Amino acid sequence: MRSAPAGLDATERRVLNPRPFRVFRKSYSVTEAKAGAVVLVGLLALAAWVVWRGAHPDPALFADPAATAVSPVAIAEIEGRRAPDGPSVAGASNAEASGAAPTGGAATAVDRGALPASLAATGWTERTPSRFDAENLYVKINGRADFFLSRGFRSLTFVTLEGPSGTAVDVELYDLGSAENALGALAAEKPPETKASSGGGTSWYVARNALFLARGASYARAIGSDESPAVLAQLEALRKAFEGGIAAGEKPWTVALFADALGLPPDRLQYAAENAFSFGFAKNVTSATLDDGETELFVLPAGDAAKARALSAKFEEGFLSYGEKVAAAGASWVKDRYLSTFSRTVAAGTMVVGVRGAQDMAKGAEALTRLEKAVLALPADVAKKAAAGPPAAAKPKGGGYE
Going from the N-terminus, what domains does the chain have, and what CATH number goes with each? Predict the structure, then answer.
């Protein structure tokens, strides 16, 4: 039998139980046993209900409020938001509300936005499109609205294409207000190991059963139901339709700078309207990653030369908040105390250029010099356009879904 540890005085022996495994109660309470059994049965019943409820969810939880509403006003009364344009209109038939194409009579006029007139390949049919704006974007992509609202979102046009043997392709066409925003969305969603193709004002890539494409201010996502030849052929038809039916617009100055002058693929461009690198003062920043996947070049307009010098000093202060100053070849750099990478900014005329996250200071300096020379070679009117920046994103007036 276990006893108290040796070497304890009388007081300590009274505190410690020398027989911790011995039961001193001569009997058990029947009431306690019954209460324990009731609690155990209750817990088992609760666990069984949770399992059953998980296997039989309420169908109403998955209902689209825009599709089930009697009219656009219904959602506005319940949630303070508008229903999407297109099929969800007052008086629409069940077929129209579900997105199916009308079977006869006059077709319902639907705003297609920037969707080209013909998207369906041979053997495919197009259902009725729906349109969404900043007020009701949550209806279509609740939980991901911030991704697009932070990238100049104007509107979303959605349509489903139905093909042979039950195949389908869902098409989302986003108007993001500028080519910078469209390219930024493409680059943000592209896996690092995937290479995009660029040409004629279009950047795109195919990932298994999906097409992602940026052209002009438009960003398109087409997701197929499988990887069958029919779906892949429809994705190729969509790519050609977008290239022929959406205006490429004027080439962004950032593409001319990073792609044409520095030779970096356009799909690497990232645009941040504000809070770039978590700095509150960093606005209208365009960046691109070099081939090493780590070193990042960036540029932003400041307005004039004096503001550019002041803004460059702010970046150095920001980098110093998590690094230390080092000097090399007469230049001042900031070494990250955690990652041991190097960052530096300089004023280049009316703009600020910089390098961030360089593993090798010499290579970072070489890349920064090339960027500085390319910026100084830009025409004066380009610098003026750059200072204005892309148009601001549409802001939803409602609340709770952004």
Answer: 110-245 (3.40.1000), 253-388 (3.40.1000)
